[in-house]
């Protein structure tokens, strides 16, 4: 279980112009839950994710993973970045990219190779291990990044707008892939996106943020049936209703007003 | 015109184009040689100071044939190799350190910016004072000059590592020494390779300069001896030899770069 308690992040504190990115943010993600974070652009989504990942020290408040305070990148957590072309290493082959973080796991050579092959197969890239990432299409590269995170065997997966730079069809495929992998690997997912449809389609709950200085505007439950389907789920009136609800929640002007108080 | 014909036509156009691309350098060289042959012979310039190209090349060929050119080439290359090697041994660790530590970068910046433009040649008196006129001076000068390009390129290469690449490694708990080895260094390698290629040329220049000015054995000294003994053709022949060596070393460096950086966008062939 992931617990974020009264997280606050101020950039450039003590300087003449400090910037309060996150004002006061509390959220809990239960085991095996899929929680999305949406908000207007500049709502400190990435800041929040970096603090949760232990990559950025918060100004105050705390993050707990299974009741252990997060002070550095936790072993039970893996991150998938939006920009796969920068997060995958072009000088390593696909399998070396996946193997790179695995030293910490202290598996044998054979077990590592098997794990890499298994995860590659599970994202539909069983044949791509010896290739270099730049020899693959954008969608395939993001699959490699997801395979790398899965091979790391995390309990929780943080994803920072992972599908923002692929085309619509690939995006739908990758969304379904992530839902499928979540079931198969039994992992918890915290998913940052600016796409409301995507958030509603994927999540159990959607956390709506206010503009910076960020607070939680609202947490929306998504009681849509699983497994979800790109066509059937999205044609349900309940889906349309939810996405409209989240949309209005983001656009609601009083959030900006209360935030500045 | 049918599509096949069109395609054939395009094919011919492409092959003509690639033939021109390939022959153009040879045409350039041939023109230059002919020019250097005709101009002295026509009496436009004094053939005593600019002998015809054929005479230059003949004297060079003579040196190659009797083997007397190999020993000075070896001595010049020794100066180049030791100078470049020492420069790398100094500049790479220093560059990595300065590039990794922001405070050190700020602290050393002005010193480096001040020392870098000092022409190595201006240090010849100092070199003589410290090391005499021997090989040590040649190496000192070549090292001094070759250190800066590698140092600066390493510093900026290390500083320019993509923060996303770095954060990815950190998020997976990869240790700092491994991050340096597997993320920072490969990502700085294109910069470093450029620095080494520049430094290679610089080290050669300084090796020849030291031989010319200090009389160290090597091609530079031979050029000076040829001049003093009035063997102008040989002097030109040796100058051409230094040029060829510089050219050869650059090809070597480029090949090395291509191998090491086969993954880099600038070197990739047939993407996708």
UniProtKB/TrEMBL annotation, chain A:
Q: Which residues form the ABC transporter domain?
A: 2-236
Alphabetical UniProt keywords: ATP-binding, Nucleotide-binding, Transport
Give the signal peptide as a residue range, or say none if absent: none
This entry's Gene Ontology molecular function terms read: ATP binding; ATP hydrolysis activity
Q: Which Pfam families match?
A: ABC_tran (PF00005)
- List the protein's name: ABC transporter ATP-binding protein
């Amino acid at each position: 279980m992931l617990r974020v308690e009264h997280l606050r992040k101020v950039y450039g504190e003590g300087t003449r112009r400090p910037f309060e990115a996150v004002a006061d943010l509390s959220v809990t993600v239960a085991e095996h839950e899929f929680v999305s974070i949406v908000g207007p652009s500049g709502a400190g989504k990435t800041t929040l994710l970096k603090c949760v990942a232990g990559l950025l020290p918060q100004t105050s408040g705390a993050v707990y993973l299974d009741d252990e305070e997060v002070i550095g990148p936790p072993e039970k957590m893996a991150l998938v970045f939006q920009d796969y072309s920068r997060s995958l290493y072009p000088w390593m082959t696909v399998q070396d990219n996946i193997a790179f973080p695995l030293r910490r796991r202290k598996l044998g050579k054979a077990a590592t190779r098997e794990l890499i092959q298994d995860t590659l197969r599970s994202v539909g890239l069983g044949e791509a291990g010896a290739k270099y990432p730049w020899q693959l299409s954008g969608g395939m590269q993001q699959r490699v990044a997801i395979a790398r995170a899965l091979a790391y065997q995390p309990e929780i997966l943080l994803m920072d707008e992972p599908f923002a730079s692929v085309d619509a069809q690939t995006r739908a495929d990758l969304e379904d892939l992530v839902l499928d992998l979540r079931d198969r690997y039994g992992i918890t997912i915290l998913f940052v996106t600016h796409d409301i449809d995507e958030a509603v389609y994927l999540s159990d709950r959607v956390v709506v943020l206010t503009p910076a200085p960020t607070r939680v505007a609202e947490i929306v439950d998504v009681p849509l049936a699983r497994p979800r389907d790109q066509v059937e789920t999205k044609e349900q009136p309940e889906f349309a209703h939810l996405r409209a609800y989240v949309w209005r929640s983001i656009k609601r002007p009083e959030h900006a007003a209360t935030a500045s108080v | 015109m049918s599509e096949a014909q069109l395609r054939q036509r395009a094919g011919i156009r492409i092959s003509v184009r690639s033939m021109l691309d390939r022959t153009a350098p040879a045409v350039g060289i041939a023109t230059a040689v002919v020019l250097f042959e005709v101009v002295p012979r026509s009496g436009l310039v004094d053939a005593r100071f600019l002998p015809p190209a054929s005479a230059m090349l003949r004297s060079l060929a003579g040196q190659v044939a009797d083997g007397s050119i190999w020993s000075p080439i070896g001595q010049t290359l020794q100066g180049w190799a030791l100078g470049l090697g020492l420069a790398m041994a100094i500049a790479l660790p220093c560059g990595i350190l300065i590039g990794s530590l922001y405070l050190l970068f700020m602290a050393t910046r002005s010193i480096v910016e001040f020392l870098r433009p000092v022409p190595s040649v201006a240090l010849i008196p100092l070199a003589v004072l410290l090391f005499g006129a021997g090989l040590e001076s040649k190496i000192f000068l070549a090292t001094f000059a070759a250190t800066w390009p590698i140092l600066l390129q390493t510093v900026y290469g290390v500083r320019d590592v993509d923060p996303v690449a770095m954060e990815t490694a950190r998020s997976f708990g990869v240790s700092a020494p491994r991050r340096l080895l597997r993320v920072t260094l490969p990502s700085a390698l294109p910069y470093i390779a450029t620095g080494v290629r520049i430094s290679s040329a610089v080290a050669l220049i300084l090796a020849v300069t030291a031989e010319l000015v200090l009389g160290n054995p090597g091609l530079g000294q031979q050029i000076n001896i040829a001049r003093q003994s009035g063997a102008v053709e040989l002097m030109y022949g040796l100058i051409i030899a230094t040029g060829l060596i510089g050219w050869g070393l650059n090809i070597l460096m480029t090949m090395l770069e291509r191998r090491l950086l086969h993954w880099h966008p600038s070197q990739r062939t047939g993407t996708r």
